[in-house]
Structure formats: structure tokens, C-alpha cells
Specification:
Layout: E1 6-13, E2 24-37, H1 44-61, H2 72-80, E3 84-87, H3 97-109, H4 122-140, H5 146-153, E4 157-161, E5 164-167, E6 180-185, H6 192-202, H7 206-229, H8 232-249, H9 259-268, E7 272-275, E8 283-288, H10 291-297, E9 303-308
Antiparallel strand pairs: 1-2, 2-3, 2-4, 4-5, 6-8, 6-9, 7-8
Helix pairs in contact: 1-2, 3-4, 3-5, 4-5, 7-8, 8-9
Length: 309
Amino acid sequence: MKGPLFYSKILLFGEYGIIKDSKGLSIPYNFYNGALKTEENPSEEAIKSNKSLKRFADYLAKVDSDLVVFDIKTLKSDVEAGMYFDSSIPQGYGVGSSGALVAAIYDKYAQDKITVLENLTREKLLILKSVFAEMESFFHGKSSGLDPLNSYLSLPILINSQENIEATGIPTQSSDGQGAVFLLDSGIIGETAPMVGIFMESMKQEGFRKMLKTQFIKHTDACVDDFLKGDIKSLFKNTKQLSKVVLNNFKPMIPAQFHELWKNGIETNDYYLKLCGSGGGGYILGFTPDIKKAEQALKDYKLEVVYNF
């Protein structure tokens, strides 16, 4: 058997801020995907994934039935038969590996599920988001539910606030545009939980909370608006400010060997870096008005273009 494909995602804007009601914009990234599978001769990876699914199935059996009901019997028997999640999505890279798995399990085993074909009202999106948050917290301790939502719907999602989310359209890519959004591979695996822990600890300080509100959230919201309107000039201005704020206030989330590279982008205007997901490793997200210049400046690193302006 092989189930439908679920894609990875990229949170373009809103990492950490959405915990405190900033705007956010998340887009599906079809380069990576995953599907539920069973096969005769499983690889080592498949056996490992199957073991993890066993624990996940036990966890889902205990989820509040008022929120969502799963066909646990079928899920457990499929897992016993060796089902695993076959995925090309790198783990610990901030592109939603657990989100795609959660979406696949919900799609196959949830009863009375909300489907993509329905009229997706805000209320239905919020129900889905809370179901996914509960499911994904098995992997991360605390989850917003946005990654699985993105993966499940395969649509860009605009987060206006925690209680106000909507599926949205984004400007069409320009195939010959020089400007680009890219992923830079840090070569390090990031762990979500410790990074969120550092953030929550910082939130206890008044100065940090003030910075978050007056600088981080302000620039994040502006970037989301600029991106959706297609105001590229203003977008780069705000992304530069955001990149500065992150470098000055989120240093623990940026691997040490990238501090100089980060600063260099701001000083030369060749590119602006920001966190992709919780940081600490994985991918770093980059924005550049000129991809050729950025590739030259970052020639020692592996870049993947995800969107062209």
C-alpha cells in the first residue's frame, strides 16, 4: 500500500512571533514530501519509523474524543503489519517533517474528518488547527498545529492571530525575476523543544517582551503585508530590519558559525537571513534582491531557491 503524498512547508514569516499573536505566512514546499507505506522488506529507516508510529498510535488512543476520534483499531493493525512514514523531508530542518506525518495519519484514520473539498470556514480551520496541535504535541511538547494544517491543505496559510487564520493566495512567482527566497543548509540538525524553551525563558524578561512587540512583531507583520501585496521594495526594507532584530535578540537560535555571515548580508545588502522554524540548525531562510549576488556571496553553502520575485 502507499497513501497520498503530504508536502513539507516553509513558514516565511512568523516564527516565535505567532506564539504572541504576530502575523504569519506559511507556504507548502513541494520539493519534499512523505506518505504512509507498507512493504515486504522494510529498510532500517522504515523499521525505526514503524516503532515511532507504534508510540504515536498509543498516544492518539488517549486523545480527548470530544476533539477527534480515530479508528485506532485499524491504525494499530496497520502499524502491526509494518506501516511506516516514507519521507524525503529532512528532520530537524524546520520544514515540517512531523507536520506531514500528522496530516497523513489524520487523513487516513480520523473519523468525521474535515476535508479539503469542503467550504473551509474559519471555524473549520480552527478546529483542524487544534486537532493538529494536539496530535503534533506528541513530537514537540507544544505545537501550534500550523505545520500539519499547511501540509494537509497544501495551501498557503495566513495567520492574522492565533484565533484568526485563513487560506490565502500568494503573488504568482516571476520565472525570470532576480529576487528570491532561498533555503541555506546549515548542516546541523536543530531541535525544536530546547529552542522554544530558550524563547519562553527570555519571555520572562520585560525588555525582551517589549522588543518582541515593538520591533520583532512590527517588522514581521509588515513583511507579511508586503509579501501578499507584492510590494517587493518595502518587503526587502522590512526583511533587513527583521534580520537585524533576530541577530541582536535571538543569537542562541542562530548557530554560532553563522553570526558573521548573517551580519555580512545586512551590511552588503546582498541577502538577508532569518530563522526557518525554531532555528538552532536545520535550514536558514534567506531573502535576496539578486540571487546571483547571493549565490556568489554564499558560494560555500548549499542554497535551494523556493520562490522567485
